[in-house]
Structures are given as C-alpha cells and as structure tokens.
Amino acid sequence: MQNPENKPSTIPYPYIATLEDHLKRNKTLNNVLFNILDKQTNQFSFVMDLFYNSHQKYPKKGKPGKLPIAILESFKDWCKSRNISNLPTKRQKIEALNKVLLFSSANCIKLVCEIFHLEEEKEHVKYVASRLLSEKRFMAGYHLISALNLESEIPLESCVFPLFFLGHDSCVKAYLNKTPHLQSHFIRTLDNLSKNGFVLREFVDSLGIESVKPKGMIIDTKWVLKRFPSLIEYFNINIKDCPNLYHTRVGGAMAYLFRRMYYEESIDYEPWEEMMFDTVKDHLGVQKALLVKLININEFAVAFRFAELFRMNKNDWPDIMKTVPYPGPIFPIVKTNPIPDNYIDYLALRLNRSDVHLVDTPEKLIEAVDDISENYNMVGLDCEWKPSLGIFKEKAALCQLAVWDSVYLFDILALKEYQSKQIWEYLLRKIFYNEEITKLGYGGINDLKVLIETIGYEKESKQDYRSVVDLLAFFKKLKTHYPEISEEIENWHPSLGDDQKGLSQLCKTVLGRPLDKAEQFSNWEKRPLRERQIFYAALDAYCLLMIYEKIYPVLKKHGLDLNKVLQTKQTPFKAQKPKAVVQSKLSNEPLAIKDFKVVVDTTVGGVTKYLRLLGADVVTLNEGDDHMRAVQIAQCERRVIITAGAAYKKLSGYVPPGMCFCVDNLLMAKQQVSQILDYYKVECQDSDIFSRCT
C-alpha cells in the first residue's frame, strides 16, 4: 500500500460517470470503487476530490445527491477492509473537513468525521465549528457539533438559540437531548424572554440572525409563547418552572372554565368549583380577575364563596367587590343533586349502586382481578384523570373495568400509596396482557398509555396489550368498509343536528340516549369521590358493553365480528368488482346501457337526466349531501361514481381503479355523457332510449 502523503490524483469525470452508472444498477459502489481505490497512490485525497467533483457535477441546494454519499459510504467500507483507518495525516483531515463543509450535509459531515477520525483533532474542530457559527452558517455548525458530540462545549447562545429562532426545532431537540443539564436553562431563558417584547428583541438582535431570518417570520412574545411550550412537554419539564407561561396558562384556564359554566352551561357547579379552585388557588392576580367576572354577572354569593375558599385578605379584594354588601356566612353552594333532574334524557346505568365497587386496597384489587379474569372474557375499559387545561400533567386517577353485572373502580391514587409493584404486575398480566379477555374501549390505547405511565411502567410498549378493541376505530372501519351495516345502525336513532360528540354521540346513535357529560370536567384527584362522579365513571365503562350487546346481532347476521372489521384492509366492493364494467373496460366488448350502474355526485348533476334518458341505471345525490354518500352507495350497490374536480381525488381512493370517473367540467352535459360512455365502452340501442322513463 502506497503512502497517502503522496500527491493527490487528478479526478477525471469518466470516473464519476462510471460510478453514477454503477450506482443506478446497484445499491452500493463497493465493487467498482474498491478496484479504483486499490490503484491509487493517495486514497484519502483521491476520495475527497472524487466527492467534491461529484457534488459539483450534480449540485442540489441544501441536500447532497446520492452519489457523493455513496462514495463516502463505500470508502468507509474500503478502509475497514484494508485496515488503514489510522493513515490519514492531520493535513488530510483538515482538507477533508474543509471540503465536506462546503456542502453542509449532515450525512456527509458525519461520514467524514468517522472516516478521518476527526475526534483526534477536537480542538481544531471546535475552532471550525465556532467559525461556522460566527459566519451564520448555523446548520453546518450544528451538523459538525453533532457529529463529534461537542454540544456541552458550545454556548447555547452560539448555536441552540439561533436554531430555535430560525425555526429548526428538530435540531434544537436533538442538541438538547445530548445535554440534559442545559434543557432547564434553555426553557427558563425562553420563558423570561416571553414576558417582555423589548428584552426579546434585544436578545434576538444579539444573536445576529437578521441576515438569515426567514422572510415573514415575526418574532414577538406571542410567537415565543406559541412555540416553546411543545419543548416543555418534549423535555418533560414542569410548567411551574416557567412562571410567565404558567401564569398565562392559568389565566386562560380560568377564562375557559368560566365560559363553560356561565355561557355554555355545559358543566355542573360542584365539578366546576373543584376545578376552578384547584386551577387558580396559587395565583392572586387570577383570583382577583375571577372575582371581578363573578361580580359583573351578579354572582355575588359565588364571588364571596371563592374569596373564602382562597382565604383572601379583604385588603386584596378587587375594588368592585368592596362596593357589594357582604352576604354573611357563606355555606358551600350545592347546585347539583346526586341524580340529575333531567336524568330521563340521558343513558341510565343498568346496575344498582351496590354493583359498583371502589377498589382502593391491594386486597380489593386482587379480589377484583380474580373475579374478572376467572369469570368474564370481555370488559369495558375507561380511565379518568384531572383535565390538564394546559397546566396539569395527565395522570390516571381512576381506572374503570366493567363486566356484565359489576363495575370495578380502581382508585389509582389510593393504590399507589401502597408502593407495591406486584399488584400492578398482577393487574397487567391477568387482564391487560391477557389475550383471552377482550378489552372494549373508546380511545382505549390512550387510556392504557396514561395508566401505564402513571403507575410507573413507561417502558412497556402498546404491543404488549392483548385484545384491546377501540370502538372509535371500529366504527370508522365499519363506516368505510361496510357502509350498509353502518347505515343500518345509524338509522336506529338518527341524530341530525345533535350537539353530542364522541362516546356520548355513539351512545345516542346505538342506544338511543347520550351520556350525561356534566362530570367530565371533574377534579378526579380529589377524595372522596362524589356520588355523581362514581355514577359517571361506572357508566362510562359499562356503556361500552351495552353498545357491543346492541351491535353484536347485526355483526353476526353479516358474518362479522369486532376483530374481522378492524382487520379489514379493503372493502368487500374492492374484492367483488362489478364484472360487467370491469370486463368491458379491460376488453373491447361493449357494455349494454341497461347494465351500466352509476351514482352521480352533486358536482356533475347535469349528466343525470341524459344518462337516465338513454337507459342507464342512475342514482343521484341530493343537494347538500356529503360526497362520501356517493362512496356508500357505490360500495353497497356496486356502482360507478361520476364526479369532477377535487371531489374525484377524495372519492377515487375508496373504490377500485376505474370505478370513479372524473368528467371535464368545461364540457356541456351532453358532451360529458358522451365522454363517460366512450370511456366505459357503453352501447346504447334505440330500444334503450326512454326505457327507464315514465
């Protein structure tokens, strides 16, 4: 092997053409490049010249072509096979680094650092990285820093903050993942900057990124407040460590709860009081704002009630409150009964109160788990936690498991006090990881995720859950792939114009009554639980069994079950293509007009009359019908969809190729009909005309 200190070889373009041609036919360049390298006298310089010239011949802004990367990857393999990885000199390392930095490619920079062992030139690399950052080449600097893990040795203001303000959040996350000790400092700095626009502007100016700032980006406090909260969640930083953001979120949560109570009237007083108190109890300024809002709508008793709950000094009362006569001793304001007044309007729990069991000790947990695992093969699953409102972390407070004659409410907060890992393992193994027990949920995977994280099993993957059926996903599949069954179920209790959503809407459709969601915004971490909370939690899990009980006969009638629907990847319509249309399309044989079955979308209603006059079997959508109605009809009745414009892109994905036709909107209706008949080779006889008309 020749000494690599010799003079570099000249790189003729035929080399590049040869390599490019080889790469098109093979995944790597090893075969051809190894032979070329073995003939060179200075392989390291040769490869970098080859890399540089291949980049120059096929330049791509911001991205390397396939050839430059393939050259470096192949050279890396060549070095390993020839055992010469320690041969490059310091000068060659510096030259290689200078050449690769001309193109700012993360992959190329990383490969050059590995091949030329640039970690041995750490001080020089740090100098180069600092120079790149000072030249405002932030991405090139970041890639070099990342390749050699220099994050801890570069000031945040030199790299991370410019990357953040330039919108490179993924780079910021990757950088700080390697330096956990800097995460809090970074977040707290952004929180401080979000408080004062002038300070923020000064800080951004000090970074010197004006010349590279993307056009149209407005950097102000709102811009920062909108962007950095996602990083707080990503790095799992307590929002209370960001006092400015925390105060802003608390004020927003107070306003939201106030609107839910007094304008939307979608929450009962007791859960509202619990959540409001827990939200603003540590923020005097927000407490005053709440009292002012209450006085302004003449809720004097509630205002004084909260003043007492907050133990607020009279000197801290807002001025407007001091003008209102004090009503005397304020007792707890109870505006809800254990059973709602309009109970008859909502779905009822089919069990007695004695059938709902609170599980708050290890002994009760083992007893409940044994009962479920030994006697039932299906459970309704749900979890409850305090609403986050942007300020609280989601932690499961209650887990409900419903069987046909009982509901078990697992008090996660009480059970965690025992700090027994064995009871959680017992629950997971006997029920959640037991494939013989079907777990019915509505968004159940997310419930399980929150539960697992709460009890300290974050490393468990969702693949470990056995036989979890998400009814939300099930009904979506049913509507897409079995529209005739979905339509049958929807016709049980039509709910046009109903304001119900989610599981409550599903209960209304399938069972005839919605859920009472007044307790949804409860503080589920407060103990003891109220009777209304217990009733709500039990029904949220038990209604899943009631839904299954109602749809089971329908599924059985059609030869289906839950898993078969969820595993469906294509519609029965795709498996049973309309033979007449398909065969006509594939062959030159004409199709009789009487056998031509279509559904006409609202976008091209003009063709309906002419197709029908000619004798085609035509169904047309009514004005105002959703485009997806055409898909349902096409799948049920094996019809071709006739549509146009943007609707075609949407609808064509739900039917086999050729079963959705896009007409030219620039043509007249008669010309559109001619276009359709020509495409599907439809033949019309004199006897067919008016054959479908009265």
Mean of all residue-level pLDDT scores: 86
The side-by-side strand order for the widest beta sheet comes to 1-4-3-2-5-6
Distance between the termini: 94 Å
Q: What gross morphology would you assign? A: globular
| Number of E strands | 12
Question: Roughly how much helix do the residues carry, as a percent range?
Answer: 40-55%
* Count of runs of 4 or more consecutive helical residues: 34
Largest sheet: 6 strands, mixed
Instruction: Estimate the strand proportion.
Output: 5-15%
Low-confidence stretches: 1-9, 571-577
Radius of gyration: 34 Å
From the helix content, strand content and strand pairing, which structural class follows?
alpha/beta
What does the model show?
There is one protein chain. The protein has 694 residues and is of the alpha/beta class. Helices cover 52% and strands 7% of the residues. The chain is built from 34 helices and 12 strands. The strands form 3 sheets. Strands 1-4-3-2-5-6 form a 6-stranded mixed sheet, sandwiched between helices. Strand 5, helix 23 (444-455) and strand 6 (468-470) form a beta-alpha-beta unit. Helix 2 packs across helix 4 (66-82) and helix 7 runs antiparallel to helix 8. The longest helix is centred in the C-terminal third of the chain and has 27 residues, at 531-557. It is globular, with a radius of gyration of 34 Å. Residues 1-9 and 571-577 have low confidence and may be disordered.
